[in-house]
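User: Last request for today: this protein with uracil, please.
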Amino acid sequence: MQAVELIRKKRDGGVLDTDEINWLIEQYTQGAVPDYQMAAWLMAVCWRGMDARETRDLTMAMVHSGDELHVRDIVSPVIDKHSTGGVGDKVTLAVAPLAAACGIAVGKMTGRGLGHTGGTVDKLESVQGFRPELTREEFIHILKTEGVVLAGQSADLAPADGKMYALRDVTGTVESIPLIAASIMSKKLAIGCSHLLLDVKFGSGAFMKTVEKARELAQAMVDIGRLAGIHTVAALTSMEQPLGCAVGNALEMMEAIAILRGEGPEDVSELCYHDVAELLVMTGKAQTMDTAEQQVQQAIRSGAGLAKLAAVIAAQGGDARQVEQPHLLPQAPYKVMLTSPHTGYIAAIDAEAIGLASMRLGAGRFRKGEPVDHRTGLVLQAKVGAYRQAGEPLVEVHARSEAEARDLFETLLACYRWSDTPVQPGALIHEVIR
Ligand code: URA
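Assistant: Here's the final one, the structure of the complex with uracil:
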């Protein structure tokens, strides 16, 4: 087989067979197919697409390119949850321990921030000593003893995806539904949970800008998961405005702790509780969403969810006192309040622009591998639909200097649209593909 033949075939709208896809991914992972040929093939896929069988074959070839954990052979049921990424998305930090507190094992590998979207590992690392890099033995040991493990992405799982993602990032080939679906699902299948809940975001702060595109991606991933024998459900959720109020690593950790105490902002709390209830129903631990939600509320009231977060953080080397007493988490030296320039209703908050503003404070990366400042970020004081008088608090800026905070004011004000008449925010959970 020759790579150039497969590039030509896809360029001309052909359908690759299973052997051709397996060969291409294997040869590329081994370095026998160079980056320039893979880049050309990826671009052909962006233009021509792939059918469901090709997408599944690509996913499986990427899974087989490295180690496979098969966690469901160790603990079952064991769940995984994945969000396609957003601004202020601290859902995993609350859902994983809450699900574990409700009796579902959670084996999760999680990523770092990408562009304007934050990453769960960066948020967890705001806790002193927390260690995301775990050996296979440690991962399994913590899963068995704590019922929840939150590890960083291992380079040994789906290594073809690691290589291909880095290439896509610099060749304009990220935005392809089959490529995104195969990339995400190869990592999930390599871990090998029994049940998977996908949170596919749409809107200004998400990869998928429209609900139609998000639905297409969600359906592609659900189909791959089901064919691989994983009970997969996808929720389409809005990222039209940041999720919750906190954006930034330690700030989001604090908000996750508040959610586990039942004191978090309404939107993000509702999403977290819904996700755990959905997982309880999926795994047969509850018969209906209503009884599942009662179990979730019980885990909040008893403090079991928060205790699980402290336990998994301690098991991974972190200082659990920072979870029990969140004021011990790292804090920025300057907190400067931006006040509302208008009297009126907030009509929109541009999530992507808020994410980028938070990056400028040091909370995210402009280049791969850059360190992040865990202390900095933003705390929104009001969300879409809220009424503000001119001079009332709008955004608290957590910065390394007062000048850095004030420099951002104009950018932040440009993130807001105002209305003189009441505004009803759209539903957060748009639909669920079961
Ligand atoms: N996240 C991934 O893991 N892969 C993609 O292709 C896009 C987002």
